[in-house]
Write a structure and sequence with these properties.
Blueprint: E1 23-26, E2 46-51, E3 67-73, E4 83-84, E5 93-94, E6 107-118, E7 121-125, E8 133-140, H1 143-146
Amino acid sequence: MHGRASLSKKNRTMEKIIIQPIGVIHTPHHDVKNMPIQPIAAKGIKGYIELLPEYAAGLQDIEGFSHITLLYHFHKIKGHELVVVPFMDTQERGIFACKAPKRPNAIGVSTVKLTGVEGNIVYIEQVDMLDGTPLIDIKPFYPRYDNRIEDVQLGWLEKNKDLPLEALRSDERFK
């Protein structure tokens, strides 16, 4: 049995969260049209992160990882929609049941291949974000923790689980 919490307007005590970018992601993607929709569809596509110099010390020991997970801001998205037609479907779905970018907080997550670090520059591959994307955080990818679930249900995506993601590209539906 699940507990039920109430967040009526009267009881909302949540404060705003202010997040400052720690750097910028540079990629060859200057327009959302025909971009890969996931890192798996961006094999061989290179980019780099320009971390703000004051955060460079935080990169210590990161080169031992083959992949890193990036949290970033969908900076070109205007507003949000609670119901969208995701890239892998033709039917409307709730925004929290898909990975579409037009989200209330416009936060993106991608696990990319780490290819090198020079000072405050982090070289990456499998980039699926726009050039100039503000970076919020970097986390090392650790399969034991990040791929730990064995009995997974895919919801509406079950019918699309065998689609060749490498061939799918974005369009302009979320501009």
